[in-house]
Write a structure and sequence with these properties.
about 70 residues; mainly alpha
Length: about 70
C-alpha cells in the first residue's frame, strides 16, 4: 500500500488503484445495443419460436384443393 500511496502522491489521486476497484474511463462512445447479436443460448426471452404445420395434413389439404379445383373446371 505504501507504493500505491507514493504513486498517488506523485501523480495525483486515483492515478494508481487496486485492480479490484475497477476501471471506468470517461468514454465518448458506448455499445449500440440494437447492433448486438441475439443471445438465443443464454436468454430465454430471446429464444426463436418456430411453428410448422403437420406435413401429412398439408399434403392432404393440397390434394383436397387440387381435387376441388379439378371439379370446378369440369
Amino acid at each position: 500500500m505504501a507504493a500505491l500511496d507514493a504513486c498517488n502522491r506523485r501523480f495525483g489521486r486515483g492515478a494508481v488503484v487496486p485492480a479490484a476497484a475497477g476501471f471506468t474511463p470517461a468514454r465518448a462512445w458506448s455499445t449500440k445495443f440494437e447492433m448486438r447479436s441475439p443471445r438465443y443460448t443464454t436468454r430465454l426471452d430471446e429464444i426463436l419460436v418456430v411453428a410448422a404445420d403437420n406435413p401429412v395434413r398439408s399434403a392432404w389439404k393440397a390434394a383436397i384443393y387440387r381435387q376441388d379445383k379439378c371439379w370446378a373446371e369440369t
